[in-house]
Each structure stands twice: as structure tokens, then as C-alpha cells.
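Just scan my protein:

. . .
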Amino acid sequence: MKAVKLQAPRRASVVDEPAPVAGPGEVVIRIDATGLCGSDLSTWLGHHPFRRPPVVLGHEAAGTVVAVAADVTSIAPGTRVALCPLIACGRCASCRRGQRNLCLDRRVPGVGWGGTYADFVTAPADRAFPVPHSVSMTAAALIEPAAVALRACRRAGIARGTRLGVLGAGGIGTMCALVADHLGAGPIVVTDVSGAKLTRLADAVPVLPVPLPTEDPVQAALAATAGDGLDAVLVTAAAPGVLDQAVAMTRSGGTLVLVALPGAPAPLDVDACAVRELSLHGTYAYQDRDFADAAGLVGDGMNVLAALTHEVPLDRAPAMFEQIMAGLDYTKIVFTNDSADG
């Protein structure tokens, strides 16, 4: 089968790999669409903490079940699915506490099983979440980042009427705004240095775009809340100074959720967090309930395709990484895989 394999940092190519065979409890999924995540770019650059070349890239994916192991009765060949790319061990302390997304021995594509930039992958049957025919494969591939966004919104306590800030309008920031709008949050103040990203998002949902550094995000947040500050702020970018902005934009007693990974220690005004009783939460990936609910939101019509800027054949994946490094303006990229049909 065809796969996009990273042989060394910044050196990916389309290669032939053995086609996978379902083991006990597994299914084989033909990959029809698969997204490009920031972690894929980090892996391509050689910066990812645990995905190391040689590795087949990709983990945001949707496709069609083409084979099942003899002991699998929960899902049948021909079922259209979104892949939940996190396998928890079920035995560690985190799993026993019900925090399977924090599993101490978790497996993800590229670490313990195959990446999704390929014609086919195997997966445990319970990692394949059925999607209705009304959802395109491209939209189904975006269920995974939508699940990341839904968990971040839940960590922030977002509900109808929550006054929200989203700091960063990249792929996950955009998805957070789409999910928050679907949950009834508003106003939603979104910041980014890219006017194009802000414009695309504002065309899809009623957010208040704040281009940086032209406008002051703190003043924008205060103006949107009659001087009170936002109920919650999702930090989805790792730019210098973003935590100071988040603290200043949040009302006393409000909540900050750290979504982005700076990759290095970042300063935080702890005094302000303490005396204003700000709640600070991290968020990592999702639990199965988040993934299933995200699939439900997409099935109910949440427009995840509003985040899509590029839909290109999987063969072009190596070239797309080069284009990104050359300054490509994008929010979300999905690779389609028509050649897997054979």
C-alpha cells in the first residue's frame, strides 16, 4: 500500500508499505481523508517529543471499514467511520481514575500503531466511530480536532451565554470558536496576527475578530463585556505574551484553559491569578465521550468545513509541508486518498 513516511526531519516521501491485517479485536480501515495537525508539522520538523522518524505521519482520519477480525461483531465492513486515534491501556492509575486521555501507556498513530497518511490502517474496533452518510469523509476527518476543541470548551465550562476569548485562530483555535458558537457562547473574541484567518472565521460564525498587533485584545475584551472581562479564555496560540493577555482579558473569578503547547517554560502572572481567583486548567486530547459527542455535533450540522482551507490528494503531502514552511496561508488541510479505493 501507499504511505507518506518521514524518513528523517524534513524528508518525507510516498513509499510502499505492507498492507495491514486485522488482529484480534481489530478492523482494517481504508483511509479516505486525513488531516494535517500541528503535531504532524512538529514531527516533520523533528521537534515532536515522542513521534520520531522513521514514521508514517497522520492521526486525524476518516474512512471505510473494509475488513474485521473474526471476533469483531460490533462493526461491519462497509461502515463509514471516524478514527479515534488514542488507545488507552485501561490498567494504569490514570485509566483507573477514568482519565483515559491521560493514560500513562497510551498508544497513538506513529507510536505503537500505524499513521493515517496511508491507504489503510488497523485499529481496535472500538476506535472506529460510525458517521452517517450525510457527513462527508472530509468533514469526518475533522471530527478529531473538533473533539480536541470540545474538550477544551468543556474544561472552560462553556455554556449558552458564556463570554469567551480564543487566543489564536489556527486550526484548533478556529475549531474551538466553531464548537463554542454551536454551544451558544457569545460574544466570542478571537485574536490572531493573521487577518486572513480572522476573516475566514468571522465569515463562518459571529465572532469579534481582533487583529494583532493593530488592535488591543484586552480593550476588545473589556469593550465586549461592558468592562467586566471574559468569563473564559482559551489559549490556543503559543506566542510570546499570550498568557499575560489571557489573564488581563479574563474577569475576576473567570477561567483560563491552556490548549497550545509552547514547548518551553512560559511566564504567568501568578499574583494576578491568585488575587483575582482565576481558575487555570490544562486540556489534553479528549475522552471517548468527547469524541463521540463531537461526531454527534458534526452529524447534527456543525460546520467543521468552515475551518478547511486546502483539500489536496495525499500524494501531495510532502510538498504541502514544504509550502507551509514557505509561508502558506492556511487554517486546516485535509488530504484525500482516492487511490485507496482499489
User: Anything to note?
Assistant: The longest helix spans residues 143-155.
